Amino acid sequence: MDGWLLDGTAAPMLPISDRGLQYGDGLFETIAVRSGTPRFLDRHIARLEAGLQALGFAAQPGAAPISPSLTETLSQVASEVARVASGRSAGVAKVIVTRGSADRGYRPPRIPQLRRLVGWFPSTPPPRHYYVDGVELRVCSTPASSNPATAGHKTLCRLDQVLACAEWDDPDTAEGLMLDTNGHIVGGTMSNFFCLRNDRLLTPALNTCGIAGIMRAVVLEQAAAAGLATRLVDLTLDELRDDDELFLTNSQFGIWPVRSLAGRGRRVGPRTRDLMSRLAAVGVEECAL
Amino acid sequence: MDGWLLDGTAAPMLPISDRGLQYGDGLFETIAVRSGTPRFLDRHIARLEAGLQALGFAAQPGAAPISPSLTETLSQVASEVARVASGRSAGVAKVIVTRGSADRGYRPPRIPQLRRLVGWFPSTPPPRHYYVDGVELRVCSTPASSNPATAGHKTLCRLDQVLACAEWDDPDTAEGLMLDTNGHIVGGTMSNFFCLRNDRLLTPALNTCGIAGIMRAVVLEQAAAAGLATRLVDLTLDELRDDDELFLTNSQFGIWPVRSLAGRGRRVGPRTRDLMSRLAAVGVEECAL
Q: Which residues of A are less than 8 Å from B66 in CB distance?
């Protein structure tokens, strides 16, 4: 299967009335597939469920239960992801769940008919030197939107990231760092940001902005297992120190060390490499050096 | 024609690959139609153009011009809106312009193939007592997202408004007021907010949040013509005074006076009624009392 499954059936189109298009009223996941298996699928499904709950995709209080239920929808998503991944060497399964079609107007229907989309995209591995030597990271001028109501969730409202990515077109710059309007680091346009300082691992708290990545959660666990103290913090660029080790995480690529930020060289250090080895040991094979 | 025109042809579906669905990468307009004519069409087209420019829908610097050009797209939108409005007594023409389909990834294509959607929706007039007696306005707990990069524009990323509208289901409450995370008033979920204080008309500046409504612009012009000083301000709920006249504006309904805010009665005053008469005189006939 190339392309998309719409509620389980191969289809290139969806109704224009869909609230995902009309209002960004939905969520998505991008799941790495390696050797036919969706990586960290359970974690992706759990994050999707948390997002669907946060957005009120379950029935409204007092209303009849939705059909299909959240549980059914999540189970169907998992099985359709496995289906598109089957027999593939490497690629991306993208999942979208929307609040479906309804009458015009922001107010969600009391009993939404959830719509699910599962797509398959082949992928090519990132350059090896991104892992070995690190990546160049720029600072974007487009700020990340602040909203505690949706912070952390992977909603369809991603225009900030689109505008941030339009700021550069230099293939040597692998990623752009986004700040909130108070100058706090939120993360890369498509990645989470980490700072290793002595025996502590710092990453933005994402209480008001950003997306809590699956690889971010895996890295926080691996860091704790390695004896690092992990801290969710608010960090500005000025608070970064010269001997901090910086890196980015993403469910597709694992860890990329940062070798320069805003044109200034950074050290790619041994503690980052240790975390990369640990990731490789739990299935993120591209992090093996 | 009921339903949607997709690039000028009646169609109920659009490609799942469309960036409007995938990332909220698009803009929309909702245009009131009265007696077969789209009201304030030129203003809607001008706002759409400003949004398309702000989002970089024109070609990237150094790239070939897009095809169709922005000018062609806007001209086609205007003619398709006139087409769906023709012969209709009252309703809504909804326009969506997206950055079209492209490869997966936030980065916009250098030469986007804009996609335009024009839909027709019949409408029923709001209750007359909304105009005569005013409306009940509640305060939503969902904050409005802050982002100066997209503030004022009517982008497809409207999940805040969706979540805010899900907060109440009482038909006696006509609208919900949204605040930013600093407690400043942004506007209603689907309307702009005004405060008449002596000979001054105050409305949120919308530098970091919200949508700059077409009716808001008309009202600001009419207020200036009536000799009121108009001020774009940051206002908190606490800064509202008991004798302020409050009202809401929207391109579909014109002006609704506010007769209660957060359960507390407000005076519907003569200066609001004067502005309503002035709106009626420039074509917003539902504001005639």
A: none
